[in-house]
Amino acid sequence: MVEADKIYKSRSTGVIISPIGSGEGTFSLGGEELEELRELSPELEGKEKHVPIIKVEGNRVTVNVGAIDHPMEEDHYIEFIQLLKNEKVVAEKRLYPGDKPRAIFIVDDTSDLRAREFCNLHGLWSSE
Q1: Which end of the chain is more exposed for a tag (fewer CB within 10 A), N or C?
Q2: Residue 72: pLDDT band by 50, 70, 90 thresholds?
């Protein structure tokens, strides 16, 4: 089953898909079934540059990637940051080499938020 707001990746091509709806079946690309990415634990080595940190000021939510800014180089960078509420993606920002590893979102309700980010070399990391 394909689930909304999960993240799927092709091992051979690196293509990443995050569906907006759920349904029966699987994702495949060129005959290869895409795998669901699992969020890495905030306790793992490398956490200081990968775990998203959320700061809330009123309805403004800032997500910084890492206690130490993550590199944003051509061969090593954060591809996107997502903000989730009750396990649903409510906001997303794409990032590119040279950008700052952060995103600012304006949301109506700041309760029960968490963030996740995808590093092109080290995978999917979550704030919890």
Answers
A1: N
A2: very high
